[in-house]
């Protein structure tokens, strides 16, 4: 896996990230840190990447189990340390999974498998953060 980060100019703290798969993502800093609030912060990108990683796993696990999953949303809330390095200390992930005839134990198992076996991002972040999860099912 590769990526390249380019500073977008001397007058701010915006950066353009190009992924190895050819996608472009912009990041910016907070105004009090020289940024202009034009894009997500780098640590927000870490958090959203983790959410994407675990959502991918949960949907894939449910689909492979032939469960009728129709949508998956993960809402993440995180706390960071007060002092540098301001690592994540707590992360809560609330999964809202929509489908037909889904059972709570099956979806909770998929979430657990993601966090204990498959999601590299959440497993890595669990080294510094207490990660908790909750699941809400919506019948469609």
From TrEMBL:
Gene3D superfamilies: 3.30.300.20. SUPFAM superfamilies: OsmC-like. It holds the Pfam family OsmC. InterPro entries: KH_dom-like_a/b, OsmC/Ohr_fam, OsmC/Ohrsf. This is Peroxiredoxin. The lineage of its organism: Bacteria, Pseudomonadati, Pseudomonadota, Betaproteobacteria, Burkholderiales.
């Amino acid at each position: 896996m590769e990526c390249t980060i380019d500073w977008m100019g001397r007058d701010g703290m915006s950066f353009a990230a190009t992924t190895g798969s050819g996608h472009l993502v912009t990041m910016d800093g907070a105004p009090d840190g020289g940024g202009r609030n034009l894009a997500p912060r780098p640590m927000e990108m870490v958090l959203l990447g983790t959410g994407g990683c675990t959502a991918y796993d949960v949907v894939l696990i449910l689909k492979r189990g032939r469960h009728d999953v129709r949508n998956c949303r993960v809402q993440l809330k995180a706390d960071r340390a007060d002092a540098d390095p301001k690592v994540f200390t707590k992360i809560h992930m609330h999964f809202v999974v929509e489908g037909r005839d889904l059972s709570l134990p099956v979806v909770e198992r998929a979430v657990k498998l993601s966090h204990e076996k498959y999601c590299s991002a959440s497993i890595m972040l669990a080294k510094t953060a207490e990660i908790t999860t909750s699941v809400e099912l919506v019948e469609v």
